[in-house]
Amino acid sequence: MSSENFNKNDELIRQWQEKIKVADRNNIFCHCRFCGYEWVDSDLKPICKSCGSKDVESISCWQFPDG
Ligand SMILES: [Zn+2]
């Protein structure tokens, strides 16, 4: 039994909780039509963080269908 594995797993869970917190705060899922980059933002008119394109699809998280 390794406590190191437990700590790694714990760290992974913590990282996910951070991501969920960020998504919860920002709530705008963004998808760049130009390069395909995906991220979560708080701006409804975001600019792609990867390529700088303004051709970005923004979807509010609460618009996602169940499942
Ligand atoms: Zn892009």
Secondary-structure blueprint of this entry?
Elements: H1 3-26, E1 28-32, E2 38-41, E3 56-60
Antiparallel strand pairs: 1-2, 1-3
Task: Tell me what you see in this structure.
By secondary structure, the chain is α+β, with helices and mostly antiparallel strands. The chain has one domain (3-63). Helices cover 36% and strands 21% of the residues. The chain is built from one helix and three strands; from the N terminus they run αβββ. It has one helix spanning 3-26, and strands at 28-32, 38-41, 56-60. The longest helix has 24 residues, at 3-26. The N and C termini lie far apart (36 Å). The model has no long low-confidence stretch (mean pLDDT 83). It binds zinc ion. Residues 32, 34-35, 37, 48, 50-51, 53 line the site of zinc ion.
How would you summarize this macromolecular structure in one to three sentences?
The chain is of the alpha+beta class and 67 residues long. Helices cover 36% and strands 21% of the residues. It has a 3-stranded antiparallel beta sheet with strand order 2-1-3.
Features:
67 residues; elongated; 36% helix; alpha+beta
Mean pLDDT reading: 83
Low-confidence stretches: none
Largest sheet, in brief, is: 3 strands, antiparallel
* Broad shape: elongated
Count of domains:
1
Helix content: 25-40%
Tally of alpha and pi helices: 1
- Order of strands across the main sheet: 2-1-3
Ligands bound to this protein structure: zinc ion
Q: Classify the secondary structure makeup into a structural class.
A: alpha+beta
- Computed Rg: 16 Å
Number of strands: 3
Listing every helix as H and every strand as E from the N terminus to the C terminus, the arrangement reads: HEEE
Q: In what range is the share of β-strand residues?
A: 15-25%
Give the N-terminus to C-terminus distance in angstroms: 36 Å
